[in-house]
Please model this.
Amino acid sequence: MTESLKQTTTSRYTTFYDAYDRIRSLDAPLWLHRIRSDAMKRFRELGMPVARELSFPLKEDWIYTDLRQIAETYYQDGPGSPGGPGRPVEVRLDEDALAPYEFGQDGWHRIVFVNGVHAPALSHGPDLPRGVVVSSLADALVEHPELVHPHLARYADYESTGLTALNTALIENGLFIHVPRAGALETPVHVHYVTTGLDAPLATQPRTLIAAGDGASLKVVESYSGLTDQVYLTNAVTEISVGRDGNVDHYRINREGEGAAHLSTTQLHLAGNGRISTFNMSMGGALTRNDTNARLTGEHAVVRMNGLYLVAGDQHVDNHTAIDHAVPNCDSYEVYKGILEGRSRGVFNGKVFVHQDAQETDAKQLNKNLMLSSNAMIHTKPQLEIYADQVKCTHGATVGQLDEDQIFYLRTRGLSHDSACHLLTYGFAADLIRRLGIEAVRTSLDTLFETTIRDLSAARGRTER
Amino acid sequence: MALLEIRNLRGGIKDQDIINGIDLTVERGEVHAIMGPNGSGKSTLGKILAGHEEYEETGGTVRFQNKDLFELTPEERANEGMFLAFQYPVEIPGVSNAYFLRAAMNERLKYRSEPEISAGAFRRLLDKKMKQVDMDPELARRPVNEDFSGGEKKRNEIFHMAVLEPTLSILDETDSGLDIDAMRIVAHGINQQRTAENAMIVITHYQRLLDYVVPDYVHVMYQGRIVKSGRKELAFELEEKGYEWIREEVEAAG
Model:
């Protein structure tokens, strides 16, 4: 590496290095110090995936999504204040400010983070069943380090992934859920990561850790909302581990602000007979990159990995998924649907690895894209690597436009051209939403989605006129 | 004024006329059957009347409810009371029949400056209409035509017609692909809709539907024209003699 390049890269990530120094000075268990310092070391080596740079040969996974602009933005450290590290700025939000972004129902467990800082005043919920912990990660590290230690940073790979390394080095806060063996948390948990406008671009590193023991079950909605259209960065990592016969329902909703970059890794770890359903909805942000990975480590585990992306204008959304069938007799079902309007760009890359021992694997994958504009673009790539011979694996990808015959059919029943397009767009995605497990989530997502495409259709109507 | 007045209509697809001068007058309370061999332009007529964008009129006039039909968009024609039952009904994944019909109903009410229908009133209307046309309630909940059998799709068209209560229905080969039992049910559904206030144009290749839906008039189309018109007996004659006879007659007339 040349001296000048080193110089640029050093100043480039200064904000993160400063944040690391601040966090390192806080009280934490020794094991966590070690994880952070290992991760920081790796981040210094790996950096962010930036195209066309000598020190970081372009990885295939990052062909279509270039983080150079993010890497070159000087961010303000999340919980640190502009006046220097170590002094959290608390932005006080009232319930009304959150109302348009609220999700689910009254009576759910709710835990809110504002600009990376836990907001206890906005967090509440009913009494918890015995042994169940729902709290901020920072509180859990003080009150139940023995529950956090076996899981934190055990699943999400910070050895080879720069963004996970960065998040891990800067682990400070986020949601923690622990449901012990045979426990059940019936009431869903909604964790809400909110970013408000600050005077300089803000970077947060939300860290979510969810551990369901053997036979345990829980439901969780993780949402990201931006109350500002300023530039900011969310680099989130979520780890979910489900024990034998456990069951986790997970929903992830991205409603970031217009100027936001949303980078995320969701790492799912399933023991034998374990079940995880995850649904990923991306609507917000200028740039979104989600890496959703599942590792099936015990027989008869089942993962359902679904997603919906709805982008317009100059938005860019990239979903990379990887499902690792390490043992026999596991099933994975994956459907990702995209709706692209304006000059938006979409990327879908779905990897399924079936290892040599993973006989009797049943893996199905489908990616469907609806292009509402001739200027939008999608890169879709299913990638199946199968080393076992007794398996059922299928995949498919489609890219299409609204069908003229369908539009005409609806018009002959009295729907206007716009209403017909709106209904067809809604139907394209409703098909997926309809199958979601929790009724309250289904209804909320349905409403949210319908409103969003209605706004989108209205905006299109305006630009066309 | 007649409900529908077609005068010397010409038109077709991509600069090629398929309809070569049609005259037809339909009054309220009437059922007109349009028969003819394949390729005679029967379905094209239906598509031009409903306003399919790929089809274009190149001459003549059509007045519907005393309005110039070609000044109206497909949805305006629908909201004025026209209904086209498709030969091949289209699947709309993700949108339930009931949801879609309520949207269609409300567009119509809006067009007529009437208030939207309430959820309860719509539910009651749907129940009534399902009974009327012998529709499985399960099919009303399912996405429009998705994974429906051929017969179910045709029945669904008649169900849509029953709910929307059009003044002029154009049924494009509604009998095609139906076995005799399915056809009886569909025909029963159609007959349930006949009133003194509305009218129907039944496009069909075969006479057998007309055993159940008895027309007031039968027209035979050939090479884009109505070459013969008569009462329902004409349908029996066609069934007996086939279309070859018409062909010979037309060619003999030169």
The mean pLDDT of chain B is 93.
